[in-house]
Amino acid sequence: MRRAALAIAALLLALTVPFAAPAAAATQVVMMQDYAYSPAALTVRVGDTVTWMQHDEAPHDVVTTSAPVAFRSPRLSAGQTWSYTFRQPGTYSYYCSVHPDMRASVTVLPAPTTAAPKPATTPAAARPTPARTTTAAAAAPPAATSSAATPPVASTPAAAPATEAPAVQQATASTPPTLSPMLLVAGLVTGVAVLCLLLLSSRRE
Questions:
Q1: Which domains does the chain have, with CATH numbers?
Q2: Cα separation of 32 and 180, whole Å?
Q3: For 139-178, what is each residue's pLDDT tens digit?
Q4: pTM here?
């Protein structure tokens, strides 16, 4: 029961760990003014959007010359804007097809990686302990030997408890060995049998 409670507590702790929120996409602005792009060199990240704002009387556009993904904007008149969202990292070099001297570039960096939350560690008390196998600490005690005057029939009752002694000792390996009640009964029966034989022999004499 205690292990189940600890496991549920660890699960709730893992669910309540706050996850790092992904970085919000940013929007950068490039001015098209005085027949130039400003800034001429811009650095953004994957997922960011760049907006070009046209302030000149003459039309301008944005056309890539070398880029991982080519794009081309329509010709923009004064006051118009055009936006593009970068999905692939790399360097995007572009110019104005109407005025080829207008050149600039955008460097796109990979998106920042967010660190994953650390998994909740299970308390040591909730970890399952390996099962331990117990072996018999000692061999079974030797069976009591009968005297020479005891007939073979009288020694047979003691043979059965001798085979059961290892099973009893294996079950109680952690406690000191005790004398089996069956051995006491067998010894008592053997003593009675020996006494009866002695009485019968004395009467015959």
A1: 2-20+116-126 (no CATH), 27-109 (2.60.40.420), 152-204 (no CATH)
A2: 105
A3: 444 444 444 344 444 444 444 444 444 444 444 444 545 6
A4: 0.47
